[in-house]
Amino acid sequence: MADLYSQLGVARGATEAEIKKAYRKLAKELHPDRNKDNPKATERFSKVTQAYDILTDKDKRAQYDRGEIDEDGNPKAPFGYGQGGPRQGGGFGRGGPGMDADLGEADLSDIFDNLFGGSQRRGGFAGFGGGRRQAPPAKGADVGYRLAVPFVDAAALKEQRVTLSAGKTIDIKLPRGVEDGTKIRLTGQGEAGPAGNGDAIITISITPHRFFSRDGDDVRLDLPVTIDEAVLGAKIKVPTVDGSVMLSVPKGSSSGKILRLKGKGFHGKSGQRGDQLVTLMVDVPADDDELVRFVEGWSRKGAGNPRAALGV
User: Fold this and answer.
1) What would the pLDDT profile of 51-60 be if each residue is shown by its tens digit?
2) Is 107 helix (H, G, I), strand (E, B) or coil?
3) CB 178 within 8 A of CB 154
4) Are 176 and 185 in contact (CB under 8 A)?
5) d(Cα 275, Cα 242) in Å, to the nearest integer?
6) How many Å apart are CA 45 and CA 297, to the nearest integer?
7) What is the CATH number of domain 4-75+141-207?
8) According to the model, what pLDDT value does residue 68 have?
């Protein structure tokens, strides 16, 4: 199997930004939705995603670079394990305490054959002597996916549908506190193996919204209001992640005034939901002659200096 850096087409010393850039390019080319009739592309998509997940995890990348884990993220056996390397204690290993260093494997074979029979030596007692230990069966490899979630769906924790590489479609629930990079593990939905299937690991990517933005668990919105709504006060319709609601604009509101809609933000890890913070932006119409005449007359009456507190 090619090493993880080669799978992504980057050098071993690549920065995290270079790894992300390479992954985005490959993911776009190989995504299952664009290669429904090309199973090889789908298989490679899974491998580059797995490579990305390991190399963007600082601890796992360090373990991989030191040779402690393989390309599937599984621990590697220490050098010499089961290959005639150092043995703990005395036992029946060649040259162990109380044994003649010239005693060969044929002699040990005779001992085990006489005591237990040849089949016993080849079975459960093989690891008791100088024979090679058999590694336990392993689970199948985990398979990584990236799921783009709309901003509004992430805030409201709406169920998302994901299609796995084998073509299976699953609806998943988003966890409280979901954010970019949140990982969701689907047990048993990875590759098959002797000890059972591996897992599917879904990495969440929240899509930016055209007018909402996130501030912790709160949602922010810049809301245009007319001059008369700001001066006289009004009840106006406002979009939220849960749909439109009515908002009361206080009389005499200025641009920059922040109004709060309770419980219209993201669901926090504690279970408490954030708010929506609405910043009023007074919209001044251009080329309104009547407004110009009014303001000129109002200004002559002495409107005062709103910047006086700033010393200017």
Assistant:
1) 888 999 988 9
2) helix
3) yes
4) no
5) 12
6) 68
7) 1.10.287.110
8) 87
pLDDT digits (tens, 9 = 90+) for 149-187: 999 999 999 999 999 887 889 999 999 999 999 999 999
In angstroms, the CA 258 to CA 278 distance is 5
Task: Quote the tokens at residue 85.
Answer: 């390397």
Q: Considering Cα of 254, then 256, then 261, then 264, what sign does the dihedral take?
A: positive
pLDDT of residue 97: 39
Residue 300 has what pLDDT?
Answer: 67
pLDDT below 70 — which residues of the chain? 1, 77-135, 300-303
CATH 1.20.1440.230 fits 212-288, yes or no: no
Q: Compute φ and ψ for 226, nearest 5 degrees.
A: -80, 165
- What Cα–Cα distance (Å) separates residue 268 from each residue in 101, 177, 277? 67, 4, 16
This prediction's pTM: 0.54
Rounded CA separation 199/193 (Å):
11
Distance of alpha carbon 64 from alpha carbon 58, whole angstroms: 10
Instruction: Please tell me the distance from the alpha carbon of residue 217 to that of residue 86, in angstroms, as a whole number.
Output: 55
* Chain center to CA of 248: 39
The predicted structure's pLDDT at residue 109 = 44
Contact 143, 51 (CB under 8 A): no
C-beta of residue 281 within 8 angstroms of C-beta of residue 223: yes
State the pairing for strand pair 276-283/218-226.
Answer: parallel
Query: Is 175 within 8 Å of 182 (Cβ atoms)?
Result: yes
CA separation for the pair 172, 200 (Å, rounded):
12
Q: Is 95:59 a contact under the CB 8 Å cutoff?
A: no
Look at residues 196, 168, 170, 197 and name the one whose alpha carbon lies nearest to residue 184.
Answer: 170
- Supply φ then ψ for residue 293, to 5 degrees: -65, -40
Structure tokens at 106: 């044929």
Strands 183-186 and 212-215: unpaired
* For the chain, domain boundaries: 4-75+141-207, 212-288
